[in-house]
Each structure stands twice: as structure tokens, then as C-alpha cells.
Amino acid sequence: MNLTIDGKAKSIDGNSKAGFLNITNHSDVTIKNLLVKNCNKSSLFVVNSKLTLINVTFENNYDVESGAAINASSSNVTSTDNKFLNNYAPSG
């Protein structure tokens, strides 16, 4: 899957009930100009894929294990001009 999400300064709010997006199977995803907040598991879960983040703010996200904002495995993640505010996971 190839996907570009331009949030145009909007927000995704997990309302402490959900994560935002699972990216798997050699996908190529770009996310820009977005606020991702209040997710109760990894906001972005990335496996075997490419993720590009531009001007994305991650705020008040939580995971019980690791990767409150981004949990990536065997993936290429590029981050430009992003903010990480008050995210928490016991293992990072």
C-alpha cells in the first residue's frame, strides 16, 4: 500500500480508546501536518514498512508496553519537524 495523509492541521483523537494506524506488509506511508492525540496504544504501529512523518505532533499517547507514539519493527522511519509531547510507555 502506498498512502499519503495530509492532515491540513487537523487532529486524530483516539479518545483513550484506540490507536491511529497499523502500517504493515511493505507499505510506504507519508503522514504530514497532523496532530495525533490521546491514543491508548501505539499511535502508529509499523512493521516491515516505510514511514515518513513531516510536521506531525504526537500528544498524550499511551501504551502499556512500548512505543506510545510510534512502535516500529523492521521498518524505515523518517522524521522531519515533528513534536512529541507527554507520550508514555514503560519501555520507551
The count of β-strands is 8
Net shape: globular
State the end-to-end CA separation: 28 Å
What is the SS-derived class? Answer: mainly beta
- The helix/strand order is EEEEEEEE
Q: How large is the radius of gyration?
A: 12 Å
Unreliable segments of 5+ consecutive residues: none
Q: How helical, in percent, are the residues?
A: under 10%
Indicate how many domains the architecture comprises.
1
Strand content: over 45%
The major beta sheet can be summarized as: 5 strands, parallel
Instruction: List the total number of helices.
Output: 0
Q: Describe it for me?
A:
The structure is a single chain. This protein has 92 residues and is an all-beta fold. The chain is built from no helices and eight strands. The chain has one domain (2-77). Helices cover 0% and strands 55% of the residues. The strands form two sheets. Strands 1, 3, 5, 7 and 8 form a five-stranded parallel beta sheet that branches.
